[in-house]
Design brief:
The protein is an alpha/beta fold. The protein contains 14 helices and 18 strands. The structure holds adenosine-5'-triphosphate and magnesium ion.
């Protein structure tokens, strides 16, 4: 078969001395994504990767898998031919005749220093050949360099040329798991899934923390929604851990002990504190949230600053400057949109204040928390936390209960230090 898949990367180009590291991780990710499919190992030639599929029928699945490999700019299913114009032109003509466009352009990249033509000369020669061929078949096709209906792309490499007319956009970014670990606060809504994805695309290996309350009769539990989102995001980074943190008791304490206008901000502070402990167990370098500035009351600049005060890990908010429409577009693209549309009982709408604070000061939140035994509440949340491990294997994501040893040790240490987590009883708020 003369089919070859050509894989291009872009940002890795910008890497100086680290380029080989990122390239080797990209190649490892490509191999892992395609491990169960009939393809050759990737071959690195002149700043691109080439893969030979062994079966034509597998190409759509291969392309679909490659769409999730971070670091790739685009991928094309090309036909390979000797690079001499006498062989190249008939193939370009044949492929363009299949497309039968009203207008077209030819774009050539030459990566063979000994090739007889430069890229402009090759584009002209092939453009003329294709034009004559299509017109001889009765078409009134013309050349259109700006926004053509079909572009015939040619890449000349030493000893061979690749020709294609369609390409699949890649995910971009940097290869998976090249940048250290982060813990994403994952609610089940649209935003936090997209926020986690954006940081994964920058090479972070993301673990997830979901805080859940009891399901209401009308709406289901949020836990399966969070699990489903992690399932969809795992192929991008191959392995994920999801922590499921019970939050009901913590919320009840906040409701019982603090003024209602600060509730949501205090939930956020407690979530961040619990996530910080999980980050410690994961040896993670920061946390991620799906906040988008001023999208809701808890996300005004004042409230975000008040929530973060005193927090000693970096908080990444990759959606801070994004509009909802941009976030939803990305949610659709990565496959989390439909899952986040499901109705579920998040822990946050429970006990929502009628009039939330919009311009909270950090000191106001500190004062509001005076009646809470923060450390006991953190231990309480951690003690009930369960963990699931997800792994992408043979085209499927498998999940199993995780043995979170470092978390268990952390809880044991906290209980030794502070005694068992006793919190004051609350009236059934
Ligand atoms: P999302 O769509 O991610 O739920 P949102 O616009 O609904 O975001 P909020 O509900 O105010 O905003 O939540 C802000 C951020 O706090 C979320 O993006 C998420 O990172 C975190 N968060 C909120 N609820 C939870 C939860 N139940 N579990 C984990 N993280 C949460
Ligand atoms: Mg939400």
């Amino acid at each position: 078969m003369d089919r070859v898949l050509v894989l291009h990367y872009h940002e890795i180009w910008l890497k100086g001395g680290n380029k080989n590291y990122f390239l080797s991780r990209l190649i490892a990710a490509v191999k892992r994504a395609l491990a169960d499919l009939p393809v050759s190992a990737p071959q690195f030639i002149c700043e691109r990767l080439l893969i030979a599929p062994h079966e034509e029928a597998a190409i759509p699945t291969i392309l679909e898998r490659l769409r999730r490999v971070f670091g790739l700019a685009y991928v094309a299913s090309a036909r390979e031919v000797p690079s001499a114009l006498a062989q190249l032109a008939p193939l370009a003509c044949e492929m363009m005749a299949e497309k039968n466009p009203a207008n077209f352009a030819v774009r050539a990249k030459i990566a063979d220093p000994d090739y007889a033509l430069n890229s402009m000369e090759l584009e002209r020669a092939l453009g003329r050949a294709v034009l004559d061929h299509l017109r001889a078949r009765g078409s009134d096709v013309r050349v259109k360099l700006n926004d053509p209906q079909v572009t015939c792309r040619v890449e000349v490499l030493p000893g061979k040329a690749l020709v294609y007319t369609d390409r699949v956009e890649g995910s971009g970014g940097l290869p998976a798991v090249t940048g250290g670990r982060l813990v994403a606060l994952l609610s089940g809504g649209f935003d936090s899934a997209v926020a986690a994805y954006k940081m994964m695309r920058r090479g972070a290996h993301v673990s997830f923390a979901h805080f859940f309350g009891p399901p209401s009769p009308a709406r289901g539990s949020s836990k399966p929604i969070a699990e489903e989102i992690v399932r969809v995001l795992t192929p991008y980074q191959f392995t994920s851990r999801l922590y499921l943190v019970p939050f009901d008791l913590v919320q009840r304490q906040i409701v019982a002990a603090t003024h209602e206008s600060y509730r949501v901000l205090l939930y956020r502070r407690m979530m961040a504190r619990l996530a910080r402990e999980l980050a410690r167990a994961e040896r993670a370098l920061g946390i991620i949230t799906g906040d988008s500035v001023s999208q809701v009351a808890s996300q005004t600049l004042h409230n975000l600053a008040a929530t973060d005060r005193g927090f000693d890990l970096p908080v990444y908010r990759p959606l801070a400057g994004d509009d909802k429409s941009e976030i939803l577009r990305l949610a659709r693209q990565i496959g989390t949109y439909k899952i986040s549309c499901e109705p579920f009982e998040d822990c946050c709408p429970r006990f929502m204040p009628r009039s939330p604070a919009i311009f909270a000061h950090p000191e106001e939140l500190d004062r509001a928390e005076v009646g809470l035994d923060i450390e006991a509440l953190v231990t309480l949340g951690l003690e009930g936390t369960a963990a699931l491990d997800f792994r992408f294997e043979n085209g499927q994501v498998v999940a199993r209960e995780a043995v979170a040893r470092r978390l268990q040790k952390l809880v044991a240490r906290r209980k030794n230090a502070t005694g068992p987590p006793t919190v004051a009883p609350t009236s059934g708020a």
